[in-house]
Amino acid sequence: MRPQAAIIILPPPGLEVVPQHPTRLNAPRGPFNSPDEAAIAWSEYILSTSIYIRHEHGAVIYRRTVRHGFLWLKTRTEYRITQTISGNPHSINLTATFLSTNGTSVATIHTHPNSHRFSGSDLRNARRRRVDAYVATPATYQSITNFHLLRYDRSSSETTVVETFRQRGLRRLSTDERRDLETWYRRSWERHLASCSGFGCNNEGRWPTNPWP
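RESULT FIELD:
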């Protein structure tokens, strides 16, 4: 079997690069049986991190064909997720290049810790990339008790709720994780507040935001 080629993900120009914290590195990668299954597992794991530090996180879901069985004569389709990256409080750049054998991107997935719906640019990017899109977000603006996973179907232009989560359904961050996340992202959050305009940034509440009071 040929080795899987590297997946290249580039940060947005000028964005301060935050170290690869363990929460992000350990996010689920697969394999999964469907894009929805992949999106649900990823959201259950990473959404609490995104809500806590109010920064968007994201990845790309891709499909590949895997050979197995006697003499590798059988094939099956599986879905995997690229390594999770983080952006800033209101955007994330998911420029991803897939060079893996039989790998085809099928959807993007990211979080919206400071909004509760897809943005116009999310939908435009999905159409431009010819993939579906998922967003994990509070069910209502600034809710920290109920969360939705939304899917945008590019072929029908319809948005549906794939899954609804409550606090207990999200991965609980340890004390050490919270401390490290605060250390890594505090400077980025303070810079955001100092320069943000047009997003109601002054009303975004306390930072960090703990989903488990």
